[in-house]
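Collaborator request, handled under Task 6.
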Amino acid sequence: MRSLPTKLAVIQHTAAEYLGLIEDHLEIRGIGFRYFRPFTSGSRLPRIEETSAGMVLLGGGPWGTAPGAAQLPWLEAEIELVAAALAASQPVVGFGLGAQILALAGGGSAVAGTLTLDVGTATRTVEDALGGLLPASYPLVRYGRDTVSLPATARMLARDEQGRWALFQLGERAFGFAGHPGIKSAIIEDLIMEFPQAPPETAAALAALRAVQEQLETALAAVMAGLVRVLGLMSPPRP
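Structure tokens returned to the collaborator:
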């Protein structure tokens, strides 16, 4: 009998964006992870049997989820994969574009938007978010485009200054973050170099990110403790 995978399946949508500061939090807990890079020759999305330990959907730089030239090329296939993971009650966490894909897999809808990079603040909306470990407020760094409306079954856990969702939950084991909680300025810089499209006023946004980097790292420790607890990432995968 073949054993179940013990590594998180991490889907990259660009070469530049990876787990960032989250890698250290997983490694110190002995939680393995494997990157899938469907944008590279010979690579692919994971199969559903490769995601039973959990799946992380990263951001996508200038790629979007709304119909048009900027839509992620393999969007439909990834939505189908995530929908299957949700149906199987597998852990799923999405950041940025990944959170939009999670929302679409749950029945949400996308509207085209402009590529932006902004640094703001997210505020917790429910006390028990991430098992009560989500900070009351934390830095929110967004790099992406398009807007996704959450499905009716989603529960908003945090919102930004404009009242938009910053963190939502689908079912018991799926969470979508509007921004990457483990982002580093080097990731943003590499995204800007990877694609010909770049958000306006990136220098000011990068300076704002560097100014809140310490706060971001402090918040990440609490966020990761909450995710590990509510998703059971240190427990054996469910059969």
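The cover message to the collaborator said: "DSSP finds six helices and eleven strands in the chain. Helices lie at 22-28, 75-87, 97-105, 185-194, 202-211, 213-231. Please let us know whether this matches your experimental observations."
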